[in-house]
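Key result, reporting period 2: structure in, sequence out.
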C-alpha cells in the first residue's frame, strides 16, 4: 500500500504578494500557481493551476487596499480562493491573514451598528477555512468570533528587537489609548522600561482627541506603539500631547500601515524621530527613506506556518512572555 504524506502548498492572493514571496523564500518553497482575474464588471475569479487534492493549503492575503483593488476586493478574493480549494478536495485550508480587515468593527458602540468582524469570521468559516493565522488583531476577543482554531501572533518582539538594538536611553512606552494599554505593558516589559498611557476620545470615525497623558514623559524618549495607523490623526494628536507634556524624542511603531488619505504627509510633517512599520499590508516602497523604517513579519509568519504544518507549538510566537 502506497504511503500518503501530506504536502504543504503556499498560495498568495493579489493584495500582498511581496510578503508572500518573502515567506516562501524563508520556507524554501515556491508559491504554488493560482489564476486570479477580475472580470469587466468587477467580479473576481480564481482557479488553481495544479491539483490541491489532499494537500494542506496556506493562503496568504492581506484584507486591505492594494494596487488595483479595495479592501472588499481583497476579502472577496480570499473567500473565493478558499471556496475553490474546498471544492477541489484540499485536505486543510489555513488562511494566513496578514491584516484582518474590518477588525475595528468588533462591537456595537451605538444602536443599530454592525459587528462586522464577526460577520467576516462567519464568512471565512462558510468559505471552508479550517484555521486562521493572523497578527495583531485590533482586539484579541475577535478570536472568539471563530469556531475554528485561530493562531494570533504579535509583532511586539519584532519591534522590541528593533528598539533594543538602537540602545536608546531613558525610554518610556506610550499606549495611544486605554484599550491598547495591555499590549503596551507587554512591550514595555520587552524593552525593560516604563509605561505611559494617553486617554483618547473619538468625536467621529477617523477623528481623535487626546485629553490627558497618564505617566511621566518629561524629558524622556517616547515610543508610541499601535496596531494600526490609518489616517494618522490619532498618532499626530498623540505626538503633540507628548510634546506638550515635555517629552524628548518621539518614535512611532505600528503593525498595520494602512496609511489612508493624508497619513503619509501628516507623519512626515509631525515631530517624530522615526516611524517603524511592518509589511503586513502593501506600502509604497519609496516612503522608506528618512524617518520611515520597515521591519518584516515574514520570518514570524513563516515560522508559524512551519510549526502549524508540522504540528509543533506556536505558543512562543503569539505570547510575548515567551520572549522575555
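The corresponding designed sequence is given below.
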Amino acid at each position: 500500500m502506497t504511503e500518503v504524506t501530506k504536502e504543504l502548498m503556499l498560495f498568495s492572493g493579489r493584495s500582498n504578494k511581496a510578503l508572500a514571496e518573502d515567506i516562501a523564500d524563508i520556507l524554501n518553497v515556491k508559491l504554488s500557481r493560482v489564476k486570479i482575474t477580475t472580470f469587466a464588471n468587477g467580479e473576481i475569479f480564481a482557479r488553481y493551476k495544479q491539483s490541491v487534492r489532499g494537500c494542506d493549503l496556506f493562503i496568504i492575503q492581506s484584507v486591505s487596499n492594494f494596487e488595483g483593488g479595495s479592501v472588499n476586493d481583497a476579502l472577496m478574493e480570499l473567500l473565493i480562493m478558499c471556496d475553490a480549494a474546498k471544492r477541489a478536495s484540499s485536505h486543510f485550508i489555513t488562511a494566513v491573514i496578514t491584516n484582518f480587515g474590518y477588525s475595528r468593527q468588533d462591537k456595537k458602540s451605538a444602536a443599530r451598528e454592525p459587528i462586522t468582524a464577526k460577520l467576516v469570521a462567519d464568512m471565512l468559516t462558510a468559505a471552508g477555512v479550517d484555521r486562521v493565522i493572523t497578527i495583531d488583531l485590533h482586539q484579541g476577543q475577535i478570536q472568539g468570533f471563530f469556531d475554528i482554531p485561530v493562531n494570533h501572533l504579535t509583532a511586539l518582539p519584532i519591534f522590541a528587537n528593533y528598539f533594543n538594538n538602537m540602545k536608546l536611553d531613558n525610554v518610556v512606552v506610550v499606549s495611544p489609548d486605554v484599550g491598547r494599554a495591555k499590549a503596551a505593558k507587554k512591550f514595555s516589559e520587552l524593552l525593560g522600561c516604563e509605561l505611559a498611557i494617553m486617554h483618547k476620545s473619538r468625536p467621529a470615525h477617523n477623528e481623535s482627541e487626546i485629553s490627558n497623558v497618564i505617566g511621566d514623559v518629561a524629558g524622556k524618549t517616547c515610543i508610541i506603539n499601535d496596531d494600526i495607523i490609518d489616517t494618522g490623526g490619532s498618532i499626530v494628536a498623540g505626538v503633540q500631547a507628548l510634546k506638550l507634556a515635555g517629552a524628548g524624542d518621539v518614535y512611532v511603531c505600528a503593525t498595520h500601515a494602512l496609511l489612508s488619505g493624508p497619513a503619509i504627509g501628516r507623519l512626515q510633517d509631525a515631530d517624530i524621530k522615526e516611524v517603524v512599520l511592518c509589511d503586513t499590508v502593501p506600502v509604497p516602497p519609496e516612503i522608506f527613506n528618512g524617518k520611515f523604517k520597515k521591519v518584516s513579519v515574514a520570518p514570524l509568519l513563516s515560522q508559524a506556518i512551519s510549526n502549524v504544518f508540522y504540528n509543533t507549538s506556536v505558543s512562543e510566537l503569539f505570547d510575548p512572555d515567551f520572549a522575555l
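The domain at 8-155+299-323 is CATH 3.40.50.2020 (Rossmann fold). The chain has two domains: 8-155+299-323, 156-296. This case is discussed further under Risks and Mitigation.
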